[in-house]
């Protein structure tokens, strides 16, 4: 079975490298110096989960160079690249290709399905802390690695048998994988951490340790989580756990100097996922008539700072 990983950064690099290490047929879509380094030296992962390893002779190319037909595609790009990626997927995929977006933004699968109408696009999310350390090298300094994916309500499930094979392959690759029967809940629960953490981290220019101790920064993070919870309830989502408690435990597991990918993107002066992680929450809150004052404050601040 052929896996295609679109985006070989912290998330896609780890998913693809773990799968390849276990003997699966994996191709990475990458670009620039990272792609060049992978071609020359393979893809190295410094993993706190399973130890350091290198995928020698890793298959990697650009979107334009890819000329195969994949069975399964993991989409691990930033939200602002979704339209370009969707058009690429629509070009290369067959009708029975399974597409699994693993992005930070809630509701990505439904959006991408519109860009790639001929194949089945699920929803998914990941719990991992990882990033490109240098071209060709991924750093995964903590052991957490959980992948959730599944079909949306009323979605055609003809590809369910393939989805179960993907779950098995991920588990065999030492990834904690779940084919979820309630992916809307699971992706919103993940979003309830990554969105508040990204928003608060950027707003305060903070690092992980800033939010681990009581005070204004931690209170802001908690308020953002609670606003996502209220939004979820308005959408008919029932969480199985207290998500504030869960997210505080996740927070404790971060390294003290950790920052979010959105912070790093903004610091570089390029596009970020601010629209999907912050402005989109305000839009959803208006749609479902939910008050989200903390999100509105940070959304307004982001506009004043010209954050894109």
UniProtKB/TrEMBL annotation:
EC number: 1.1.1.169
SUPFAM superfamilies named in the record: 6-phosphogluconate dehydrogenase C-terminal domain-like, NAD(P)-binding Rossmann-fold domains
Keywords: NADP, Oxidoreductase, Pantothenate biosynthesis
A Pfam family recorded for this sequence: ApbA
Gene Ontology terms describing biological process: pantothenate biosynthetic process
Chemical reaction(s) catalysed: (R)-pantoate + NADP(+) = 2-dehydropantoate + NADPH + H(+)
GO cellular component assignments: cytoplasm
Domain Ketopantoate reductase N-terminal: 3-151
Top EC class, one word: oxidoreductase
InterPro entries: 6-PGluconate_DH-like_C_sf (IPR008927), 6PGD_dom2 (IPR013328), ApbA (IPR003710), KPA_reductase (IPR013752), KPR-Related (IPR051402), KPR_N (IPR013332), NAD(P)-bd_dom_sf (IPR036291)
Molecular function GO labels: 2-dehydropantoate 2-reductase activity
Ranges where the Ketopantoate reductase C-terminal domain occurs: 182-298
Top-rank taxon, per record: Bacteria
Pathway as given in its UniProt record: Cofactor biosynthesis; (R)-pantothenate biosynthesis; (R)-pantoate from 3-methyl-2-oxobutanoate: step 2/2
Cleavable signal peptide: none
UniProt keyword Oxidoreductase present: yes
Family: Belongs to the ketopantoate reductase family.
Role this protein plays: Catalyzes the NADPH-dependent reduction of ketopantoate into pantoic acid.
Name of the protein in question: 2-dehydropantoate 2-reductase
């Amino acid at each position: 079975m052929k896996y295609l990983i679109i985006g070989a950064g912290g998330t896609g690099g780890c998913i693809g490298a773990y799968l390849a290490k276990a003997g699966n047929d994996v191709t990475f879509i990458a670009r620039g110096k990272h792609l060049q380094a992978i071609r020359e030296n393979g893809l190295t992962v410094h993993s706190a989960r399973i130890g350091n390893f290198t995928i020698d002779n890793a298959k990697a190319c650009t979107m334009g160079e890819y000329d195969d037909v994949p069975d399964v595609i993991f989409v691990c790009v930033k939200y602002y690249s979704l339209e370009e990626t969707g058009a690429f997927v629509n070009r290369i995929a067959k009708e029975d290709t399974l597409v699994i977006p693993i992005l930070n933004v809630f509701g990505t699968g439904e959006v991408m399905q519109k860009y790639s109408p001929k194949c089945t696009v699920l929803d998914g999310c990941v719990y991992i802390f990882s990033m490109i350390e240098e071209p060709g090298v991924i750093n995964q300094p903590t052991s957490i690695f959980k992948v959730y994916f599944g079909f949306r309500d009323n979605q055609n499930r003809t590809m369910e048998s393939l989805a179960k094979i993907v779950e098995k392959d991920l588990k065999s690759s030492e990834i904690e994988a779940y084919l979820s029967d309630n992916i809307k809940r699971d992706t919103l629960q993940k979003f309830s951490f990554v969105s508040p953490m990204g928003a608060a981290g950027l707003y305060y220019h903070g690092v992980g340790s800033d939010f681990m101790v009581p005070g204004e920064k931690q209170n802001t993070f908690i308020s953002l989580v609670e606003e996502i919870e209220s939004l979820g309830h308005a959408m008919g989502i029932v969480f199985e756990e207290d998500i504030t408690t869960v997210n505080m435990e996740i927070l404790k597991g971060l390294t003290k100097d950790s920052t979010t990918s959105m912070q790093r993107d903004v610091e570089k002066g390029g596009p970020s996922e601010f629209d999907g992680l912050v402005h989109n929450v305000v839009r959803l809150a208006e749609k479902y008539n939910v008050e989200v004052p903390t999100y509105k404050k940070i959304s307004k601040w982001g506009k004043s700072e010209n954050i894109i």
